[in-house]
Fold:
Amino acid sequence: MKKTSGYFYGIRRRWLFGSFFVLLAFLLLSLFVLAISAIVNRDLLLTLLVTFVLGLCIVALTFLTNAKFLHAILHPIDSATQAAHRIREGSYGITLAKRHNDELGELIDAINDMSMQIKQAESLKTEFISSVSHELRTPLTAITGWGETLLYDETLSQDSRRGLEIILGEARRLSKLVEELLEFTRMEDGRFTLNVQQMNVASELEETMFTYREHLRRDGVELTYESFAGEIPAFSGDPERLRQVFYNILDNAAKHGREGGKIQVKLDFIEGLIVVNIRDFGPGIPEDELEHVKMKFYKGSSKERGSGIGLAVCEEIIRYHKGTLDIQNAPEGGVIVQVCLPV
Structure:
């Protein structure tokens, strides 16, 4: 799309205006020479030809020097702008080649330094999260194991049993948080991989719902499922990762839309795409937060507990499957999460 405003556009416009005035000066000069020639009765045709060639040379030289000048200024600024956009989108550590020791060179040095410092900060953050997550795994496993063992003790009072169930619930919640943080660190340092095999998406989706349905029932949420009437072809993907995506989306729908009392899941096959729609009937997402909900650690105005990276991990998994994850507010209320997987 052609820009019609901004610094670059202004420079180009001034360049065209300058060239126009050069051309105008050339025409006036030609008229003046022709007038002089007519007065002194010289060869009018020769004078016109010489004037025309001279004028073309002046115009061509003006355009070439202006173009060279514009390229020398605008190209490095444009490259620096593109690099800044890439850094903003997460490409930390990229650097630009420095060609001159001038103001533009200082700008490129500043951008390169900023990029490297952000990369170092991100690396330290990822290492810290990974280290803490690994350290938390062992005590959480012990808490969960001993808690489940103690529940088998028939001499426990009702209050003690209830307390143990609360401890186990919180331990499992922390374990899920630790797993999400570990997934995040794998995603950040390039260790995020898929175990690809031929799989049945419908079976994996139905198995996830079967596992999660009882949990939803205890929370008073009804889970309904509309399957695809025809046959869905086999899909090359990672079954465990896709179950993780379906589980996380259902978990979010249960947490944020439980007051709607219902979650609808629909499976379709449309023009070579396996489409999974998961909808809740809760309050929805504020419009100004919709574009940010898949960002890492973003929680918005929600009061629900969580790490804020579950949807970011889900989108990464779907992206690795060359699919898309879309989140929108439903027209009648609630949120629709759509997963599209190309066959």
